[in-house]
């Protein structure tokens, strides 16, 4: 009998439900995006996000079951993202998942959002360990080493803004609509990277650390100074320069991780994985290093529930279930997503992982709009 998991994802501004079979087949994947409601604020407003999840979640679950052609009675477990993310948003999914699992008397499975992003690659190709995963989205920038299935060793990530967030902020400087990532990416294809920008890799200290706020400040100043001189630098050249600096830094940390861990596979995930230059650079890196490169199709890169079902299946097979006290964890370390006994795997990166502070998943400032945060 196939295992069918109903998965829910409400960590940020997408209300999503999916039905996944054996962790490998997507029977249905429904996503209701709230982006139109948040766009005018230039970021996600947590209060609005939570309320919209409440309004949409049952219809989204119902639609996922309908499209999968599976009744609720045909579901073997209910999985849900319990963190990290916006706490009010997470609570909606957690509470609905608990209700459904309780009513059907099936296991409840708690999934880490980033574990889901990484396991979205399962739908493309079987994961092969050890692997290195790069998770890049509007809320996250993490480089992760996985020595085996269900073992997450965070190597590092951003010390300030997430990559997608940096795209959105720089895009705003250039007058692009939110979310600016895809627009900036397109613009960059038409420009020449002629501005010399600071590298997002701190010169000293941790090899896996990234920092994007300096880059953004540098660009803001560059544009302000040009304006004071009565000049307008071509937006396409600014975009191309920014993209080149970002992609080069991500390629370098990925290269470093492949070298250090001897991984067999490089996987990319998160909304920024849609970026053309980034995909191309990592594909080339993987080819040079002789490792397999995997990236999900765009609809499985951005937030969705199928990815939550993909990792939930691993937890199901290992009998890792949540109890009825499950809550939402706004700031949940990725290492906590590891299977029991695989939390601190031995390997070349153990020491490095122990000393690297995990980047904060707390809501961060998005400029002039008080009360607006990115999840
Ligand atoms: O994973 P995602 O849908 O939501 C979060 O969990 O944040 O990622 C959305 C982010 C946004 O910041 C958006 O600007 C960025 O991904 N993004 C891109 C591209 N497409 C989306 N950034 C750069 N290049 C792109 N092509
Ligand atoms: Zn995400």
TrEMBL record:
Residues 340-375 are annotated as: Disordered. Signal peptide: none annotated. Binds 1 Fe(2+) ion per subunit. It catalyses: L-threonylcarbamoyladenylate + adenosine(37) in tRNA = N(6)-L-threonylcarbamoyladenosine(37) in tRNA + AMP + H(+). Residues 26-309 form the Gcp-like domain. Its main location: cytoplasm. Fe cation binds at residues 113, 117, 303. Its cofactor is Fe(2+). It holds the Pfam family TsaD. Substrate binds at residues 135-139, 168, 181, 185, 275. One of its GO terms (molecular function) is iron ion binding. It is found in: Cytoplasm. Its EC number is 2.3.1.234. GO terms for cellular component: cytoplasm. One of its GO terms (biological process) is tRNA threonylcarbamoyladenosine modification. Belongs to the KAE1 / TsaD family. Required for the formation of a threonylcarbamoyl group on adenosine at position 37 (t(6)A37) in tRNAs that read codons beginning with adenine. Is involved in the transfer of the threonylcarbamoyl moiety of threonylcarbamoyl-AMP (TC-AMP) to the N6 group of A37, together with TsaE and TsaB. TsaD likely plays a direct catalytic role in this reaction. This is tRNA N6-adenosine threonylcarbamoyltransferase. The lineage of its organism: Bacteria, Bacillati, Bacillota, Bacilli, Bacillales.
